[in-house]
Amino acid sequence: MPSLTMPRARTDARGRKPLGVSRAEHRWLLWPPLAFFALALGFPLLTLVRRSFEGGTAAYADAFDVPAFTGSLARTVVMAVIVMALTMVLGTLYALAVVASPTWLRFTLLAALVLSLWTSIMVRSFGWMLLELPRGAIYWFLDLLGLADEPIELYQTTAGMYPAMVAVMLPFAVLPVMTALQSIDRQQLSAATIFGAGPWLTFRAVTWPQILPSMLSGGVLVFVMSLGFYVTPLLLGGPGNMTVSGVINAQMNQANRPDIGAAMSILLVGGTMIVYLLADRLFRVSEKWG
Known about the structure:
By secondary structure, the protein is mostly helical. It has 14 helices and no strands. α10 packs antiparallel against α13 (258-283). The longest helix has 34 residues, at 67-100. The radius of gyration is 25 Å and the shape is globular. The N and C termini lie far apart (51 Å).
């Protein structure tokens, strides 16, 4: 005789409800972070858009009539590309060193990486400034070795700002590559060794294909973040290396043209979003960062 009782909902091996039901029940948990981002990001963006359109679209046309803005656009993109390339190479080497090092050295490298993330960009930029001053720490060390007779000319130069910017962005290139390295199946490495592959061939055939997507995602993230650099180039690169953010600040606080500054900000945010969306479609950056 058929049973008249209602069928029970399917559960997994541990007796839990299916994932779809759990998500439906806890969907309300998404509202607090969505509300936070609406207030922290959406409201400022709406304010900038409103300010940029106070005089119609004239502020956007006037933005491109500012020579400093058009010059800073190309300078910022070139700077971001150079920082991205250097950070991808150094970040991959750093991640390889973390994974291949003994325990004590791995702990030291990870501690330095975390400390770099916890330290503000302003503090790190001032630290590099103390290093690169004409009679700063670098000059002192070279003079101690007898390699410097005169003060070094590194502070507020193009060459002087890149080491600091790479140091600021390095953790964002190291973390995805390090995660990819730790997820590699050790049996693949053992199989390559058993079949006679040397270290270089093993790296090229096994390791490299698996870390390349993470390298690209880290590089894209560094590029996008570098487009908004302000403090480090200002302190270490000098007026001749002003970025778009520096020009926006000058329009807001010095030229007393907040409408043009807001228009420049919207153009920068829009361009950054387009770059990120294209890169995410090509390299799936968001998947590498969770």
